[in-house]
Every structure is written in C-alpha cells, then in structure tokens.
Amino acid sequence: MISIKVKAPLRINARDVLEGPMQAYMESAVVEGLKYLDTVVPVDSGKLRESFHEGGGVTRIAGEFPNLTAVIGSALPHAGMLNAGARRGPGRPPTIKNIQRWLARRGMDTRIAFAISQGIARRGTVTGPSYVEGDNANSPTQGYLDKTREYMATILAAGPLQRLVADTKSRWARGGA
What we know:
Elements: H1 14-40, H2 47-51, E1 60-62, E2 69-71, H3 77-84, H4 96-105, H5 113-123, H6 144-158, H7 160-173
Antiparallel strand pairs: 1-2
C-alpha cells in the first residue's frame, strides 16, 4: 500500500514536470520510428525513404503540450499506394525511364520499355507493388507503414516510455525543476 500525506499546498506546475520528458519521449518516438521505417520502406531510387526524414516529408512532433503527437509520414503520393498494395489500373502510361531501370535491374533488353508502358496504360498491372531488393525482395509492399505502427507500439513501451516515467518521477520529486 502506498500512502501520501500532503502537509502544505502542493504548488508544482504540471508543465514544469511533464513538458520536458514528454518532448523527449516524442522525439524518441520519431527517431525509433524512422530507424525502423528505414528497414521496411520499399526502395527503388531511395526517394521514398528519404521523403520520411526531416525536410522531405511531414514527419514532425505536432501540437502543443500536453497534446503532442509524433507524426511520421511522406508527402509523396505513392507512399500510400505502396502501403495499400494497390495495383495500377489502366490509364496514363508509366514513365518509360522507370520501366527501363526496372528492365536493366533484371538484365533484360531496355528497348521493350515503350511496349510495356503502352500495355500497362491499356490493361493496368496484374499485381500490386513488390520490394525490389533486400530481405523482402519480390514480396508485396502492402502494409509496410502498418507494420511500423505495430513496431512502434512495442518498442516505445520498452525504452522511451520507461525513460519518460523515470524522468517524470525525478522532476516531480525535485518539485518540477
């Protein structure tokens, strides 16, 4: 059993006690999220991975104390499409340069890129996007951001959350200083 007796009015400003540790916790959340995301984000040219980092995306700590939110995101439109595992429907032809790069990686004749581009424009693609290389090569990209959310929930509870609790207790014991 824990009992606390207060003999005088308690005059500790919650902002003084909590704001610093909460800000540090949110910064840890962003750092841990980006580290993990770097391992699971689909990479072809590297632009998508870079778009999540500072200056490239929407990653930030949003709000004001006590309503802080760690936001990790990309402003690139294909980030969501890759997470959804969406296949490309018929319509505009894809960029020939990208198809040539895809063909070259596979050791295929890049001169057929135009024909492939026109076929995709008429029929769309049969499957959704997949990883190009690495541990996940040729597996679907669907859910890579969702996996990041799951990872964050477990990793943050282990380290940064424990530091938040310890720092808050320490500041509270010192009267908010």
